[in-house]
Amino acid sequence: MLRSLIAAAFTVSAVLASPLQIQKRDDPNSGLTWIYKDSSLPKVMLYNTGDGTILSGSRNGRLDNINYGGGVDGLTPEGLIYNVSEVLDIAQFAVVNIPGTGSANADSDRFLNISKDATQRLCADNSDIVGAVMIHGTNSLAETVFGVDLTFNCSKPFIATGSMRPNSALSPDGPFNFYDAVRAAIHPESRDRGAMIAFTDHLVSAFYATKTNGNTVNTFLAIEQGYIAQFIAGQPYFFYGASLPKARNYFDPLSITYPLPKVDVLYGHQGFDAQLLYDAANNGATGIVIMGVGPGGISTAARNAALDLRSRGVITVTSLRPFFGAVVPGPQFAELISSGFLHGEQSRIQLQLAMASGYDFDGIRRLFEGDIRATVYNSATAFYNGTTY
To answer: Which CDD domains match (predicted)?
Structure first.
């Protein structure tokens, strides 16, 4: 019996000590280097934004989830793949590094760079890449993946993930989040749903998700719209058939040039200084989003300033300050655009893309208001200066 136990122990040790048969293959046509154990497995693009807790470690011990970064257990994207080696049993990877210096420093060129690359690599007729995963700092992950969602329009999955705890933590959340993201990227039921976020054993729509907590792992939620799927033993169980969010618009990333128009977001509050609108316009903003109190409420002074700036060509969108709800337009067309269910940061991105794509004011208003008008007023028709939808 003892001899059998010793033999079994040696067998387990030998398995654990066996090196992974990881290989790399350069593709001169695409400029990509594929990391794999089995070249017959599905191909997945891994977009690394150069920041984020998922690649970070800490010098301050395993309980530190605040002052980490640049310490022990920091990873490269390749190191993340090797560290979560189970992903190599289900896929092969090519890493594209997107220049960045921190999630809080990101601007709209980040999502546009990613979307342009993903569109060219995944949406081509002869592409054999099945999906994409993006690792990103959580502070602005929702903004980047929302921008990708509006500009990446083939049916293949695009999954964003990250972590709230560094790799050095007592219980890091990054490894499982990363595995779940890869599993979702190769899963056939992930297609035709738009971009998604894989976090804490769930998939949530990038169109509706927002970061709801600055510290805890259960942070990316779409509470009113719900989860798309739950991961069980590493497999996604989809609650619904494939569909896209109702008001999701698409902008062709390959026809958009840099830089995107400047759009500023202002936070509405009691005693709001309407001069801030003029300051934004004087600083080069051609669009302004005001996160109004309640369902987009703004002061009389702010409204008058926005109307004055509209005569100068500056477009103002009223969004909402609360996490949930919608800014519903009135039955008559107005010079201020209502954001519907889009929050301030989402409204900013859609307004940038609409202006960069050549939409005029009426076209931009249709993008924001068309679906919700059709629902609330039982018709997409309203009147303003003789114009109808």
So the answer is: L-asparaginase_II
